[in-house]
Design goal:
Distance between the termini: 23 Å
Shape: elongated
Structural class: alpha/beta
CATH architecture of the largest domain: 3-Layer(bba) Sandwich
CATH class of the largest domain: Alpha Beta
Radius of gyration: 20 Å
Order of helices and strands: EHEHEEEEEHEHEHEEEEH
Length: 255
């Protein structure tokens, strides 16, 4: 089994920022990512709240951060972490393909969209289901669509789609899906990608890893960064800040 100083689970902005800081501290670092590096922000066409790079696309921003981390020495493997154990002062991170050893672990898995209920999924039938209006909205130009959700995300999806679709219906979770709609855009919140951590670290009732601003979890040597942490503000800058803090704390833990 390959051994690293730090293993980071997740290659979104929190995980890749952490990788940059760990690598700059001259520690070996492995980043595990189950899908594609960049996280949920790669689906954003234009970012207006990232300091110093106004209007950058999510994909371009994350590609630059990824390239920086790799250039500094971070190793990235596209494998799905399915479990973590601790023995003495070492951690074993198990993926669907391999096992890796580390002296410290940073959890940065982020969140994923909450899925439609079984009732609404059945109601949707053969209609297309999307979780990103900016990604898929153009496919339904001049056609009626429906947005499911009641929060700010749903409001943003509706505002975006009104410039594209012929009609935008707005319903809440479990409401019947309007017959004319040809596509369903889901905006009913997000859930943390922490299922594989059950009984390993302390989590709240919603599955977020419990940690304060120092990013320390209930397990010594395990840190958490980004949207999967218990926190009141989830933004690009706060995820990146978590990445820096968790990396610095991990390096100090290693000594």
């Amino acid at each position: 089994m390959k051994e690293y100083d730090v293993i980071i689970v997740g290659a979104g902005i929190a995980g890749l920022t952490a990788a940059i800081y760990v690598a700059r501290a001259n520690k070996t670092v492995l980043v595990l990512e189950s899908k594609i590096h960049g996280g949920q922000i790669i689906n954003t066409f234009k970012i207006d709240n990232w300091p110093g790079d106004y209007g950058v696309s999510g994909a371009n921003l994350m590609q630059k951060i990824y390239a920086q981390a790799v250039d500094l020495g971070a190793k990235v493997e596209y494998e799905d972490a399915v479990g973590i154990t601790k023995k003495d002062d070492k951690f074993t991170v198990v993926t669907d393909d391999n096992e890796y050893i580390a002296g410290a672990v940073i959890l940065a898995m982020g969140t994923e969209p909450r899925k439609l209920s079984e009732k609404q999924t059945k109601d949707a039938g053969k209609r297309a289901i999307s979780y990103c209006a900016t990604c898929d909205g153009a496919l339904y130009k001049g056609k009626p669509v429906v947005v499911v959700g009641s929060g700010n995300t749903a409001k943003h999806e509706i505002a975006y789609l009104k410039n594209i679709a012929s009609e935008v219906y707005h319903i809440h979770h479990d409401d019947p899906i309007p017959e004319p709609a040809v596509a369903v855009f889901v905006a009913i919140g997000r859930v943390p990608n922490t299922g594989f951590l059950k009984d390993f670290v302390k989590m709240d009732s919603k599955g977020y890893v419990v940690a304060g601003e120092d990013c320390h979890t209930s397990v010594k040597g395990v840190f958490v960064a980004g949207d999967c942490r218990t926190k009141s503000v989830r933004q690009l800058v706060t995820a990146s800040a978590d990445g820096a803090v968790s990396a610095i704390e991990a390096v100090q833990y290693l000594g």
